[in-house]
Amino acid sequence: MLLLLALLPLIGALAPALAIRAGRNASALAAGAVTLSAILLLGALAPQVMAGETVQVRIDWIPRLGLNLNLFLDPLGLMFAGMILGIGLLIIIYARFYLAKADPMGRFFTYLLLFQGAMLGIVLSDNVLLLLIFWELTSLSSFLLIGFWRHLPEGRQGARMALAVTGAGGLSLIAGLLILGNIAGSYDLTVILQNRDAIQASPLYLPALLLILGGCFTKSAQFPFHFWLPHAMAAPTPVSAYLHSATMVKAGIFMLARLWPVLSGTDEWFYLVATTGLVTMVFAAVVALFKDDLKGLLAYSTISHLGFLTMLFGFGTPMAAVVGVFHIINHATFKAALFMNAGIVDHEAGTRDIKRLGGLATLMPIAATLAVVAGLSMAGIPPLNGFISKEMMLEEASHTVWASQPWLVPALATLGATFSVAYSFRYIVHVYFGKRRTDYPKTPHDPGIGLWGPPAVLVALVVALGLFPAVVAGPLVEQVSRAVIGGDTPYYSLSLWHGVTPALFMSMAAIALGLVILSFHRRIAAVWHGLPLPDAKSLFDRAVAGFERISVAFTSATQNGSLERYIAFFVGTAVVVGFAGFLGFGYVAGTRPTTPASPVAVVGWLALLTATGLVVFNHRARYPALIYIGIVGLVVSLGFIHMSAPDLALTQISVEVVTILLMLLALNLLPRTSPRESRLPRHLRDGGLAVLAGLGVGGAAWAVMTRPTDTIADYFWDNAKSGGGGTNVVNVILVDFRGFDTFGEIIVLGIAALGIFALLETAGTGASGRRIRNWTSDTPLSPEHHPMMLVVATRLLLPLAILVGFYIFLRGHNQPGGGFIAGLVISIAILMQYMASGFQFADQRLRADHHTLIALGVLIAAATGLGSLIFGAPFMTTAFGYFSLPLIGRFELATAMLFDTGVALTVIGAVLLALAQLSRVAQSAEPPDHGATDQAMDVDPSRPAPEPAPGEVGR
Question: What is the pLDDT of residue 509?
Fold first, then answer.
């Protein structure tokens, strides 16, 4: 059930996209049904969790890497999952009535459910690697939501800014959690949370802490990473209400709470986390007071309250953690309600600019009532829930000493609370009270229940949590606090009255001073706006532009299009790293006895060296260089034969023939010689690198081969027949033991052929097409376009070659051969028809589509591998059996034959597709007077001779 809960929003994200065909209501109902179903599943698990049980699901994924699909639901995850799904359902209802008819609602709800699923994944993941996947998925899906109104430049920029900041923070978090898992010896959170002492005693504690906080602070918009959140307000209001009240920005707070048992309690934690939270709380509260955009004000107020929460968890005391848990709930209720209220004002009055608003209470009484209650809670006014958590926060602040200064934290916390009162009352008073205006962009009025109903539910919770906190939230806060603290909670009281305490006087002072500041708001704002304050957006833009200039300069210097430079860089790096390892760790000679070289092997080695040297010294002459490369391939094939590897020899020879033929077609379109690429100094540099790299690779091979090693070769020898049904061990490895590798290779081969097709498909058009048509070959052309002897020979050999290919295919499981070699042999036979009789003649008779052959081959291979899963065997496992037929006798059938069929079809399709594209380009380059025909032969005795032209008779 837990696995279904985690996957349901991700799977259900398709539902609204499909349901939009039936209308907007159907799309909203589909999205709501998915979220409601997840709520019901969560509700079914809640009693177990509240009873102290942790619900777990453990599925091995890639256990050797420590990456497993492990999920767990404890009280902390329950609280966050409840907020994600509960507020998500309200947002879906609200968005249905908020979005305009022109907005693609199906796409919106798909993005929303993707984000919802990613957030659920974060709070339910037990494996930190899995958590990191969901963490980055929230950044990607929030990018889609923030930039939903793609026609708005500010929406696109806000989405890019959010992705850049939170994505960079995600990379930091990845590094930090990997270090944490390495210290604990496991990547499971449940294991990590039990290793507090080992983690805090490790010398890697501080680096891990800094990296983890980098991820948390960027996600939760802590100073100085706060600037992305206000610019994310360009998103539709439902997105702002969802992401910036209970979900995305709370992800960083969730991580602080989740890792609190193992990271908190140190001076490093206190000074880094509490200080950042305190600074963010005060700074953002001050800025919020002077924002005229309703969503801008709420954005900075969100940043301030996130600082409030960060500070509480940073204090590192159990009581502060309890207060933090309670305020997470409170903030989600009143802030989501206020964001939706701001959307109502914008929707009905036509503006979010506070300077253009005022006096809306009589025009929009329902919206005004909701705004007043939620705003008073944000200000911390009794008897609402925000007052209780603010009082408890001030109480904890009053007992906190920072750098031996007992007054500093209480004073700054009170200052933050003061400005919180000021901006909260500004939202209430300047929008809903005062004189009624006559210049509203639209005539304000209360919306339908579809818009005010969802915030009304949250406002009802605000009141209930304020009047009856112990009843409504007490059990949940208790259990969640136990999960965060990792043990019993201290004594606390969720009530409106905590007695006459320092926190009471701090709260009264904050309310009084906040109202005073609001009364002088206009004068103070004039001074504020006159200050030369830095603009975060412009700073970010300048930073991005600076990085762009650096990137362009670096790219221009290192990637100038010179393949020679790239290869020299990579080879040089490999040489330096290789020799550094060799010289740094020393070398001990191997003890394995060597095999004496036979005269044949010495001759072959000399031929290989000679051909390789000829390639180097004659590389500018393209055709001779190609011949020398063919000689190299042939010698390598002979080496395979000498080492008793006939399968490799057959494959090497076949590949060599196909490659040479295709390269001949390609080189026909190029000059016979290549231009001089570089001068002597660069030749010497490249030669030196080549010699050093060759020595390094040769030395590494020698070091490996002269040492006794334990290999898995014996396993293949012992199990090829019994496990794979074949005596050709190489083929059994390819189609069974390492069948997945082979499957990947034929996919790569197909992609390469499609890449050739894509590159050459447009070669005959545009400027490249004009160059090809105007190209003149510097190679003398034969007067025989289709030589008779070549045509006759290839015709006679075609059925024989295909028969040989089938024979090699059928014998491959037990003797040298197989689908890959068979596909190459058949490809060579067909390729020779193209070369002898011309492309058009052969293509008209070969009806098979090359793309279809590639697709069919890959699908057959995939279906063969998937078939083994149906019978409970691992992917690509071969099934085989022995049968008898009259006249034929006993024979074997194996599913490996089907897999080899897919391999052969893919090889044939890839070779023919490359051939077809090269031939088409060659045809377009033929001169008009070349005289080529579409006939199979230039001279065909079966064809009647053409009539002589007038005047030619008797010549």
Answer: 93
The pLDDT tens digits of the residues spanning 205-262 come to 999 999 999 999 999 989 888 888 988 888 899 999 998 877 888 999 999 999 999 9
Identify the band that residue 416 occupies on the pLDDT scale cut at 50, 70 and 90. Answer: very high
Number of helical H runs and strand E runs in the chain: 41, 4
Return the percent helix, strand and coil in the chain, to nearest 5. 70, 5, 25
Tell me the one-letter amino acid at 753.
Answer: A
Percent of the chain's residues with pLDDT above 70: 94
Amino acid at 345: V
In degrees and rounded to multiples of 5, residue 382 shows phi and psi of -70, 155
Q: How far apart are CA 787 and CA 783, in angstroms?
A: 9
Task: Please state, in angstroms and rounded to a whole number, the distance separating the CA atoms of residues 340 and 334.
Answer: 10
Region of 350 (left: φ > 0; alpha: ψ -120 to 50; beta: rest) is left
* Closest to 896 (Cα-Cα) out of 743, 719, 713, 714: 743
Distance CA(453)–CA(89), nearest Å, equals 12
933 pLDDT above the threshold of 60: no
Residue linked to tokens 């070769």: 713
Element holding 70 (H helix, E strand) = strand 67-73
**What is the Rg, in whole angstroms, of the alpha carbon atoms belonging to the chain?**
37
The bridge status of strand 880-885 relative to strand 67-73 is unpaired
Q: Is the pLDDT of residue 955 over 50?
A: no
DSSP 222-237: -TTSTTHHHHGGGS-H
Two structure tokens written together for 828: 């060579």
Residue 707, phi-psi category: left (phi > 0), alpha (psi -120 to 50), beta (remainder): beta
- The token duo for 484 is 């965060």
Q: What are phi and psi of 383, to 5 degrees?
A: -100, 45
- Torsion 439-430-336-299 (CA) sign: positive
**Residue 581 DSSP SS3:** helix
Q: Report the mean per-residue pLDDT for the chain.
A: 86
* Rounded Cα–Cα distance for residues 702 and 589 (Å): 10
Mean pLDDT value across residues 67-85: 91
Euclidean distance between CA atoms 680 and 690, whole angstroms = 15
CA-CA distances (angstroms) from residue 558 to 555, 562, 568, 678? Answer: 5, 9, 11, 17
pLDDT in tens, 728-772: 888 888 888 888 889 999 999 999 999 888 888 777 666 666 776
Compute the C-alpha angle 811/816/817, nearest 5°. Answer: 60
| Bridge partner residues of 891 (DSSP) | 883
With contact defined as beta carbons under 8 Å apart, do 267 and 402 qualify? no
DSSP 737-772: ITHHHHHHHHHHHHHHHHHHHHHHHTTTSHHHHHHH
Which range has the worst mean pLDDT, 23-27, 409-413, 568-572?
568-572
Q: Tokens for 160?
A: 């890019």
The tens digit of pLDDT for each residue in 466-479 reads 999 999 999 999 99
pLDDT per residue over 882-901, tens digit each?
778 887 777 778 888 889 89
Query: What is 526-576 written as a DSSP string?
Result: HHHHHS-PPPHHHHHHHHHHHHHHHHHHHHHHH-SS-HHHHHHHHHHHHHH
Q: Is pTM, for the whole model, over 0.85?
A: no
